[in-house]
Amino acid sequence: MTSLDDLRRLVETALEQSLPASAPEPIVEAMRYGLMGGGKRLRPCLTLATAEAVAIRNNTALGDARSLALPAACAIEFIHSYSLVHDDLPAMDDDVLRRGRPTTHVVHGDGMAVLAGDGLLTQAFALITGIEIGSQFGELTPDLNSRYAGRRLRAVAVLAQAAGAHGMVGGQAIDLIAAGKVKSYPAAAMDADMLKDMHARKTGALLRAAATLGAIMAGADDTTINAVGRYATDLGLAFQIVDDVLDVESSNEALGKTVGKDAAAGKPTYPSLYGLEQSKQLAADCIRRAKASLASARLGGLLPEIADLTINRKS
Ligand code: GRG
Predict the structure, then answer these.
(1) In terms of DSSP H, where are the helices of the chain?
(2) Do residues 293 and 227 lie in contact, with contact meaning Cβ atoms separated by under 8 Å?
(3) Whose CA is nearest to atom 19 of ligand 1?
(4) Pocket of ligand 1, candidates 12, 201, 203: which has the most ligand atoms within 8 Å of its Cβ, to mutate?
(5) Is 0.85 topped by the overall pTM?
(6) Whose CA is nearest to atom 5 of ligand 1?
(7) In 3-state terms, what secondary structure has residue 97?
(8) Please, are residues 85 and 113 in contact by the beta-carbon 8 Å criterion?
């Protein structure tokens, strides 16, 4: 049976191969820096594990599900990495440490870090179409001669919704306003509901898309896609709560990023609103619900393990 480490290895190789290698070298280098070297690869593993779980349940070929889902898995990690590169910029969260290394703008400069993020975001949409983008302008782009064109088109829409203004970009905008960094809006205090909405968009939407894309690419029906969506929504909330708890209980060295920044900036966090013990309880409740959603759709494989890992992770 496939292990999570097998999936991680598969993802690492595919990510490197998904960079636009024939583009101008400086931008490829900055994109590679933001993408490779560290990262738990939770989101792409979730995509692949979901595709495999659907294939196992439907008794369809595992290899097909995996190869169909792999470009979507990479697309999700490209977008996640872009968001980290941009989030660390001086105009956003202004951080110098990420994945245990200096952030992309510290190494490549602010302008190139902006472009690296833009390049990663754009390449994600190229990847998910399944069409190989040529390096020369003026070349005719090959037609998508695939019986999976419908799945890919739906996947593009899911990715756009999760990454864009309804999802991650919208969540980040709410975060910026709360931090008093938006000229046109006064800093707004956040209550528990606003905090939950911000996280659902900022981190939850992409995690949900990661799982949903796996189900779509493996040919799941809508009932299954919805059950996977519920599983990943609870997973996303648990992930965020654990992130806030680690921010209190862990260190820069263990996390590979600067800890305690949200609390120091006076931003509400789960521990600040609910206390540490109740926060951990809330995360455990999410994982119980996530597993119930899986059971309702008779989905297994690595998905329950990913749920446990989300809550037991140390970084
Ligand atoms: C710039 C549009 C834009 C959005 C940024 C995701 C995000 C929005 C900001 C990241 C800030 C942050 C630390 C959020 C907490 C949750 C989170 C996304 C943590 C990082 O994800 P991991 O732990 O990271 O999966 P690795 O390095 O393992 O990939």
Answers:
(1) 4-18, 25-35, 42-58, 62-87, 104-108, 110-129, 149-163, 168-178, 192-199, 205-217, 222-249, 252-255, 261-264, 270-274, 276-296, 303-312
(2) yes
(3) 243
(4) 203
(5) yes
(6) 83
(7) strand
(8) yes
At residue 264, the pLDDT reads: 72
Q: Which residues, 6+ apart, have CB-to-CB distance to 57 below 8 Å?
A: 224, 297, 298, 299, 300
The pLDDT of residue 268 is 80
Q: Which of 84, 92, 86, 137 is nearest to 112 (CA)?
A: 86
For residue 103, how far is its CA from the centre of ligand 1 (angstroms)? 13
Return the percentage of the chain with pLDDT > 70, whole number: 100
Is residue 101 helix, strand or coil? strand
Query: Is the confidence at residue 142, as pLDDT, over 90?
Result: no
What spacing in Å lies between the alpha carbon of 131 and ligand 1's midpoint? 28
At 197 the pLDDT is: 94
Other beta carbons within 10 Å of 114: 18
Q: Which range, of 5-14, 88-97, 193-202, 243-252, averages the lowest pLDDT?
A: 243-252
Indicate the pLDDT class of residue 249, thresholds 50, 70 and 90: confident
b/e per residue, 91-103, with b = 16+ CB within 10 A?
Answer: ebbebebbbeeeb
Distance 168 CA to ligand 1 centre (A): 10
CA 51 to chain centre: 16
Residues within 6 Å of ligand 1 by CB: 38-40, 42, 80, 83-84, 86-87, 92, 99, 168-169, 172, 202-203, 243
Query: In the prediction, which pLDDT does 250 show?
Result: 79
d(CA 226, CA 232) in angstroms, rounded, equals 10
Q: What value does the mean pLDDT take over residues 6-33?
A: 97
* Phi (first) and psi of residue 101, to 5 degrees: -135, 165
What CA–CA distance (Å, rounded) separates 111 from 9?
A: 31
